[in-house]
Amino acid sequence: MTAPSQLSQLMTLTCRGELAEQPTRATQLMLTISALFAALVLASMWGVAAGSSSATMAMANAYKVPMVVLLSALTALPAGLVALKLANAKLSAADLVSAFATSIFGGTLVLATLAPLVAIYYHTSSKAGVPLALGSVFVALATATMLFGRAVKRKVAGQPGPMASLIPVVILVVLFSAALMQFVALASPIIGAVTPFNGGFDTVFGR
Amino acid sequence: MNGTNGIGGHSADYTQLVWIVATLFGSVILALLAVAYRRARSRRELEDAERVIAEAFPDDLA
Q1: Could A67 and B22 be called an inter-chain contact, meaning their C-beta atoms sit closer than 8 Å?
Q2: Hey, are the CB atoms on B8 and A200 less than 8 Å from each other?
C-alpha cells in the first residue's frame, strides 16, 4: 500500500483532527510546517483577490496577507504554550502547535475558496465588494476557531481534565485575533477601501 | 504605501519601519521553518529506512 501524500494527510488532519495512525515526531513536524506553508500560499491567493482593484496592491498583498497571518500566529503562540503549561493540560505542546497550524490552514482554505467571489464582487459591485471581503475574513476566523477547538477536543478525548486543554485554545484564538487586527492595520491598505480595520484597535473600538 | 498617517498616533514613517522590522522577523522565521522541515524530512526518511530493514530482517533484531 502506498503512503498517503502530504496534502492528503494534511486534509485528513484538518477535517478529522487526527490521522488514522499516530504520526512520528518527524512526520508531525513536517505536517505542521506544511500546514503553515500551505496556509500562507492560500492567504496569498485571497490577498491577490482582495487587492485586485490595482495591480500594485494585488502584488503587495501577495506577500502582505501571508505575512500578517504568520506574524499573528507567531505573536499568539508563546502565550498559548505558556497557558498550556500553566493549565497543566494533558495535551502536548507539539499537538497544540499542530492543531493550531492545521486550523490556520483550514481558515485560509476558506479564504482562498471565497477569493474568486471576493474578486468578482469587488469589480462588479460598489456595495457588496468590501463587506464581502471583510465577511470572508470573519467566516475564515470562525472556521479556524471551530477546527482548532475540534482538533484539540479529539486529541484529549478520554483523558482526565479535558477543559484544561481548551484554555490555551481560547487564549490562542483571542491573541491571534488581537494581533491580526494590529498587523492588518500595519500592513494596510490591504483592501482598496477605508475600513475601521485600517487604524487597528484605536479605530475599531474608538468612538 | 501605508497611507499618509501612521497608526496609534505615530507617523507613517514609524509605522512603515515597524512593518519592515516585523516582515524581516517573519522572513527569518520562515527560513528557520524551511530548515526545520528539511531536517524533519531527513529524519523521517531515516525512520522509514529503519522500519523497512526491521520488517525485512526481523530475526536480526531479536
Answers
A1: yes
A2: yes
At B3, the pLDDT band (50, 70, 90 cuts) reads very low
> What is the chain A residue with the closest CA to B16?
A186
Buried b / exposed e across A137-153, counting CB within 10 Å, b at 16+? beebbebbbebbbbbbe
User: Residue A1 falls within a domain, yes or no?
Assistant: no
Instruction: Judge whether B10 lies within some domain.
Output: no
ipTM: 0.84
B47, A187: Cβ pair inside 8 Å? no
Instruction: Note whether A60 contacts B1, CB cutoff 8 Å.
Output: yes
Task: Please give the model's pTM, rounded to 2 decimal places.
Answer: 0.89
Alpha helices, H only, chain A: 6-16, 25-50, 55-86, 93-124, 129-155, 162-187, 201-204
Residues of A in contact with B9 (CB under 8 A): 202
Name the minimum distance, in Å, from the CA of B58 to any CA of chain A.
20
d(CA B36, CA B27): 14
Q: How many domains does chain A have?
A: 1
* Interface residue ranges in chain B relative to chain A, Cβ cutoff 8 Å: 1-3, 7-9, 15, 18-19, 22-23, 25-26, 29-30, 33-34, 36-37, 40-41, 43-44, 47
Instruction: Look up residue A136 and give its three cell numbers.
Output: 470572508
Q: How far apart are CA A191 and CA B27, in angstroms?
A: 23
User: For A69-125, how does the pLDDT look when each residue is reduced to its tens digit (9 = 90+)?
Assistant: 999 999 999 999 999 999 988 889 999 999 999 999 999 999 999 999 999 988 888
Total structural domains in chain B?
Answer: 1
Give a yes or no: residue B16 inside a domain: no
pLDDT of residue B62: 55
The CA distances from residue A39 to A125, A131, A138, A199, B40, in Å, are 28, 23, 16, 25, 19
